Every structure is written in C-alpha cells, then in structure tokens.
Amino acid sequence: xxxxxxxxxxxxxxxxxxxxxxxxxxxxxxxxxxxxxxxxxxxxxxxxxxxxxxxxxxxxxxxxxxxxxxxxxxxxxxxxxxxxxxxxxxxxxxxxxxxxxxxxxxxxxxxxxxxxxxxxxxxxxxxxxxxxxxxxxxxxxxxxxxxxxxxxxxxxxxxxxxxxxxxxxxxxxxxxxxxxxxxxxxxxxxxxxxxxxxxxxxxxxxxxxxxxxxxxxxxxxxxxxxxxxxxxxxxxxxxxxxxxxxxxxxxxxxxxxxxxxxxxxxxxxxxxxxxxxxxxxxxxxxxxxxxxxxxxxxxxxxxxxxxxxxxxxxxxxxxxxxxxxxxxxxxxxxxxxxxxxxxxxxxxxxxxxxxxxxxxxxxxxxxxxxxxxxxxxxxxxxxxxxxxxxxxxxxxxxxxxxxxxxxxxxxxxxxxxxxxxxxxxxxxxxxxxxxxxxxxxxxxxxxxxxxxxxxxxxxxxxxxxxxxxxxxxxxxxxxxxxxxxxxxxxxxxxxxxxxxx
Length: 501
Description:
Blueprint: E1 8-12, H1 15-18, E2 46-49, E3 55-58, E4 64-65, E5 69-71, H2 86-100, E6 104-108, H3 111-114, H4 125-140, E7 144-148, H5 156-162, H6 169-184, E8 191-193, H7 203-207, E9 210-211, H8 230-254, E10 259-265, E11 268-271, H9 276-298, H10 305-311, H11 322-328, E12 333-337, E13 341-344, H12 376-390, E14 394-398, H13 416-434, E15 440-443, E16 466-468, E17 480-482, H14 484-494
Parallel strand pairs: 1-6, 1-15, 4-9, 6-7, 7-8, 8-10, 10-12, 11-13, 12-14, 14-15
Antiparallel strand pairs: 2-3, 2-5, 16-17
Helix pairs in contact: 2-4, 6-8, 8-11, 12-13
C-alpha cells in the first residue's frame, strides 16, 4: 500500500525566520523584529522602554511591563530583518523546491506586510502583490500553497496599543486580515492553517502580553523575571481559538472547497517509569496540549479543562456566542509539528503551562547537538494517538533535525545525519499509514531551506536541504547551494516514499 497517490510531499518555513525585507514594501514592525540573536546558552532578548525613557530587557516567553513599548536598540543584531532573504530570492528558492519535486510548500504570511499596524482599515497593496507573486510562482511549478495565517507573528502596534491577545479587539483585526487574503487567493490556495503551534504561545513575543509583575532590567531566562501569567495565556488562547473558528466560518462562505486546519506542537510525552504518579503525570501533562486541539477539532472544552484552570487559579471569561462559535466551526484537519519526545518524571516534572515540549531527558535515545531526543517511533505513536482521538485527517507540517553542517572544500555538504533522521521518521510515517491506517494528508519537513532558528536566533542550527551562506551575525553572500539531502529527498518524492536508502 505505502503512501497514497496524491500524498503531499514538500517543505515548510515561517516568514519571521525566512522572509527578511522587514522594512520594505510598506511592511510594519512585528514583535519578532525586536528579538536579538542568541545561542542555546545565551538566550535572545527583547528591549522595551517606559514612557519616561527608562529601559529594560526580557527574554522569550516573558511579558513587558504594562505601559512600556518594545524598541529596537542600536548595537544589536536582529536576525529577522534579513533572515535568509526569501523576499529577494523567492523565484530562485521556489525553483529549487520544484527541482526537488515539492507537491506542497507551507509558508506563512507576515501580518504586518498586509496590515502594517495590525489595526489598519486598508490593506497594503504592495504586501499583497508580493504574496501574489510568490503564490503564482508556486502554482507555475504545480506546487500547492499551504498558507499559515499566524505563525509566531505579533504586530508590534497590537501588542503595545491593545495589550495583545488578552484584548478581544484582536479577533476583529485578525478576521480583517484573514478575509483579505481568503478573498485575494480564493481560487489559488486550498489548504490553510489559522494558527501555528497554539499550545506553546506565550508572553510578549507571540501573544503581545504585558504585566505589572516585571522587575525592570531583568531577563526571564535568568530566573528573575516571571514568565507570562498562566491565566493571561489561557485567556489569550481562548480568544485565538474563537478567532480561528470565525476564520473557518468566513473561509467557507468565500470558498466552500477550502480545507481549514489549525496547528499544534505535539511531540510525544512518556512517563519516566511505570510508577502510577509518572504515568498519570504524563497523562495530565499531555492534556495541557490536547485541550486546545480538543476545542479546535471537537468544538468544546473537554471535561478535564476545569482541572487545568483550577491548577492555575484561572477563570475563563467568555462572551455570549463563544460556545456556539467553537462548536459550529471546527477545523477540517489537524496540522502538527513533531521533532522529539520527552519524559515526565514525578521528581522533576519541569512542565509548561500549555503542554509544550519541555521535560526530562530519555536515556534510551540519542540527541541532536541542541539536546533534542531523536525518536522516530515516537512519531508513529503520536500519529496514532491523534488519529484515534479525532478521526480527522492529519498533516505533519514540521519535522526535522537542527544540526551543524560542514561545507567541504569542493562546496559539498554531506548531511548524512539529517538524511538518517528523516529516513527513519518517514519509515514510521509509512507504518502509520500502511499498518495503522492513519489518514495523513502530507509531510512538510521544517526549514526545507536554511532559516534563522526561532528559539536561539542562530544560523548554525540548520534544518534545510538547501544551504544558505550566512553566519550567526548575518555575514555572508546568501548564496544557495544543494546539500546531499537535497538529492535524497528529491528521490523520496519521485518514488512516493518507496526509496529511502
């Protein structure tokens, strides 16, 4: 049986890590444009300023103080400004995707390229024209666009003026953005993802959150600045899920053939031992991610939601109609990212508010240079877990291995570790389809061309089949070159997953 005919092989990127051109074509600032570079040992920073001129700094996942505004600061490198410059290389890059045989390409739309301030009444035509050109270029090669509306993309104005997604006004701004692009590409795009990794959103970067519980001048990753309040995150994500459901409703009035999905980070979770506290602890931890897909796919908050709310002393605030909106306008498919599995240990749970990927290491698994466990069998487990639960089509829209690539004297890049990682994961995907009868739409490995790492801001943490000549400080020619994995993946696609060695 193997992979079905029409299976969508491709690749995935995000605008804030790939696109560049941050101040071109009328684009406005997003919060991601304020994020400095960093490393796994020295995290990225965001600077902010009070009305009286005093300044502070926070890290990813933290909030700025209420009344402050995010700022760019001289003397720092901001990787998103140029990223790996898809803005000026899109024709070349899409030609390379086509050469590999892509059937689908997952891209995200920069909200501030369409509405520079997020709350604008009129869309930026130059921004729309850029994506017109990108989509037309994809269609020229027969590549299906898979468009993500909101991928770690928070317009700076919406964060500083409205307090981000804690404010329900953002639902209307988001729907204006969504309607604009649904109408624009109603006959060109079939597959849509309304929100990226909704279960790991938090803080100022992704939700635009502000708080009064911030110590000035401290950095969240040093343990001095508190992360975003759990209640603020849960309330903000409720607003996002209402916005997603309303976008589904809107999309189906514009083109009933649209396929609407939402996306979560759903790498797997294991108990450390068979001790009941480890087993149930892992189960509870997993629920903190699945609560969101339960709402998005099933249309209602599950019975266990109240236990999560009680844990954080949180009371969900809803408005009349929210319950009916969520129930009526569920997503057609569940898109998810899978990179690794993690372990719940009752003695050191190290868990996150919304069921993200943090946890204890697994002694049975090897890890990437960034410490991410490599677990191909875990992907089959997660595919079965999700399909058993929802009985709706799945779409793996991120999977891959961040690694350090060596460019040889002749220019070749022999990324055998990446090939091995992907080969083993694809074998398990095939097992899930062939043996377990999981309904899977497609597979788009992450960072199909080298992009800036969202977590660390580095370039040396590379995922792509295509190398981009750029270092961690933005130095380089931006020249594109094919890695060994480029030719390997080309053959995988050409044989519909039958030839992996």
